[in-house]
Design brief:
Blueprint (H helix, E strand, L loop, with lengths): L6 E4 L21 E6 L5 H17 L3 E4 L6 H9 L2 E4 L10 E4 L6 H9 L3 E4 L3 H15 L3 E5 L5 H7 L6 E4 L2 H5 L9 E5 L5 H14 L13 H13 L5 E5 L5 H12 L3 E5 L15 E6 L5 H13 L4 E6 L11 H9 L9
């Protein structure tokens, strides 16, 4: 854990510069850590993890979870130790048992399969992912061809595409946009995966608008607030650091995007699951190390990284808050009702 509390200061995103030749707010000669904020768990991840924990406490183990509840190995292993059983498909869940859908969402076909097998479902889909599903249904009903910008092998994309599979095409590159063929070029809509790079999404949307001038999109961008905030924090601090360490698992889309954002700004960056993943040579000649975490990485792992850096001589730890983040999501009705119906806990005998 951090041996001494970090000093805290606020970064003004309106005056922060991306010019690497301009003065920086840190002493480049001192070995220090810039601890970015916001970082780590987003509201959707907090909600999903809480759902599994409450389900285990309320219903007892085992509780089945389709796919990883969030893309972080530490979180998944911790919940597995508490009694959660993670499965790839619903056919692995015994009939009539309780199953939780991951934060990334599922397709209607998965929901139908759960009904067929008599499973008791608790839906931990992030509300911001549900928003994209609703948009997909709306555009499909209005007769649009739908273009979903995202990564084909990501569970979120699979779930969203499943809402309107006959009219939805997934694109991941500008070249794929150029090759798109649709029945009516004047009747096209687009959506995006919630965890894309802001720059990546912008380039793709610009390419889509160039190919389909009358294309329509969602009223508000689909990239979630947490993905955007963490990327903005990296952009505003990257040029003040010699190295960026991103705490997150390899299959975490938003964590990988943070590394890419830093690398695109020519600041060396690495994705690590834990402090033990840091290679000593990465720190050679680095006086300022920035640390952040993807939206599914727990704070305990961040603090272990900071403690490791302190042991390596980075004695100054400054928490750099780029913007406040106070989003909260409510629990699903299945959990709320279960909590209400649970018998009161009897006080322990004295």
């Amino acid at each position: 854990m951090v041996q001494s509390g970090p000093k805290r200061y606020t970064w003004d995103v309106n005056t922060a510069t991306s010019d690497p030749t301009s003065p920086t707010p840190v002493d480049a000669a001192a070995k220090r850590v810039l601890l970015l904020k916001p970082r780590g768990f987003c509201a959707g991840v907090v909600r999903a993890v809480d759902i599994v924990k409450i389900a285990l406490e309320t219903f007892g183990a085992p509780i089945y979870v389709r796919k990883e509840i969030v893309h972080n190995s530490y979180v998944v292993n911790d919940l597995a130790e508490k009694g959660a059983i993670f499965v790839n498909e619903l056919d692995e869940v015994p009939e009539g048992k309780r199953v939780i859908y991951s934060a990334h969402g599922v397709s209607p076909a998965v929901r139908q399969r759960a009904k067929e097998r008599g499973l008791k479902v608790v839906d931990a889909t992030c509300p911001l992912v549900t928003k994209v599903h609703v948009e997909a249904i709306k555009f499909a009903r209005q007769g649009y061809s739908l273009v979903l910008v995202g990564h084909r092998d990501h569970e979120e994309v699979e779930g969203t595409q499943g809402e309107a599979p006959d009219v939805t095409q997934v694109v991941s590159t500008v070249e794929e946009v150029a090759a798109l063929v649709v029945p009516d070029p004047d009747k096209v809509a687009y959506l995006t995966q919630t965890t894309l790079s802001l720059d990546e999404a912008r380039y793709m949307i610009e390419a889509l608008k160039k190919k389909f001038p009358n294309i329509v999109g969602p009223h508000a961008q689909d990239i979630c607030y947490a993905t955007e905030n963490r990327q903005v924090a990296v952009k505003n601090v990257a040029h003040s650091a010699d190295l960026l360490l991103v705490v997150g698992s390899r299959n975490s889309s938003n964590s990988n995007r943070l590394v890419e954002v830093s690398q695109n700004l020519k600041t060396e960056a690495y994705l690590i699951d834990k402090a033990e993943d840091i290679k000593p040579e990465w720190l050679t000649g680095k006086s300022t190390v920035a640390v952040t975490a993807g939206a599914s990485a727990p704070e305990v792992l961040v603090q272990e990284v900071v403690a490791y850096l302190q042991q390596k001589g980075y004695g100054s730890v400054d928490e750099v808050e780029v913007m406040p983040e106070n989003v909260r999501f409510g629990l699903p009705p299945e959990i709320v009702q279960a909590i209400a119906a649970a018998p009161p806990v009897q006080p322990a005998a004295v």
